[in-house]
Amino acid sequence: MSFWHRFARNRGALLGVFILTFFILLALLAPFLYPDSPWRMVQRPFLAPGEVEGFPLGTDAMGRDVAAGLAHGAWVSLLVGLISTLAAMLIGVPLGALAGYFGGRVDDVLMRFTEFFQTIPNFALAIVLVAILQPSITTIILAIAIVSWPPVARLVRGEFLSLKQREYVEAARLVGQGHVAIIVRQILPNALSPVIVLASLMIATAILLESALSFMGLGDPDLMSWGYMIGAARTVMRQAWWLSVIPGVAILLTVLALNLVGDGLDDALNPQLARQR
User: Fold this and answer.
1) Do the beta carbons of residue 7 and residue 264 sit within 8 Å?
2) Is 4 exposed, middle or buried (0-12, 13-18, 19+ CB in 10 A)?
3) If one looks up domain 3-276 in CATH, what number appears?
4) Closest by alpha carbon to 122, among 99, 149, 95, 96?
5) What is the CA radius of gyration of the chain?
6) What is the pTM (predicted TM-score) of this model?
7) Among candidate residues 168, 166, 167, 160, the one with its CA nearest the CA of residue 195
8) What does the pLDDT look like over 135-192, one tens digit per residue?
9) Which SUPFAM superfamilies match (predicted)?
10) Could you give the CA distance from residue 182 to residue 170 in angstroms, rounded to a whole number?
11) pLDDT bracket for residue 266 (50, 70, 90)
């Protein structure tokens, strides 16, 4: 049974792909659907969704188009989630691979270094880093990557500890392959399945972290984001509930979709575990 067939058997994963595709298209088409700045005041404040033609999601307290903010915010959230996860992988995968492959003192040093970062709450560390470096899209991505890599390192280390004793690795050593070749060509490709599943979940976590930072006023002041939209609307919840609910539902659906896709990837990449459930 092929990967795509196993993935398609998970209906939740297909639903996740559908939702995620919608938000990706929304992010990509945002500059064409709403070419003007989402910060621009275009109507009177507090228009309810559908109250005036051309503003399907209404306007906020400053008369800005909520639909434009939602579309441009999708680009920010998905961009931060993807790039910060890739950056975390670039840190965690090499460290975990070295620790698991060499073991001994190398493992001890790298794992103590990893545990140091895990002793500090992720969100608190992200707040400190963004506050020190000044809020911007770059510093937010950097902060999220720094707090996200330890689980990757631990997962990769565990996979390498298990796989480095396999026969094909021993055979590679016997034919004279070096450490780098064995790590990159023999072990790492076989350790990627759980890492890919973890990456999908990390993107969801990164989106939540970025939204929380923006909600607290630590987002990029030049970019509209879902977290900022919720934070700006929290003082008018009773007067204009949709200003908080609409971006909140967008965050909920995106995170849910990524988790569903992660479940589908887990089933497709680990068919033995899927059969045991």
Assistant:
1) yes
2) exposed
3) 1.10.3720.10
4) 149
5) 22
6) 0.90
7) 160
8) 899 999 999 999 999 999 999 999 999 888 888 888 888 888 888 999 988 899 888 8
9) MetI-like
10) 9
11) confident
Give residue-wise pLDDT tens across range 115-140.
988 888 888 999 999 988 888 999 99
CA angle 8, 202, 276 (to 5 degrees): 45
Given the structure tokens 């059969």, which residue do they identify?
A: 275
In the chain, where the domains are located: 3-276
Exposure pattern of 139-171 as b/e (b: 16+ CB <10 Å)? bbbbbbbbbbbbbbbbbbbebbeebbeeeebee
What local confidence, expressed as pLDDT, does residue 272 receive? 58
Q: Shortest CA distance to 74 belongs to which of 194, 185, 187, 229?
A: 229
- The CB-side HSE value for 102 (13 A sphere, CA atoms) comes to 17
Signed CA dihedral, 238, 255, 158, 88: sign only: negative
Residue type, 134: Q
pLDDT for 101? 92
**Residue type for 217, please?**
G
The count of other CB atoms within 10 Å of the CB of residue 63 is 14
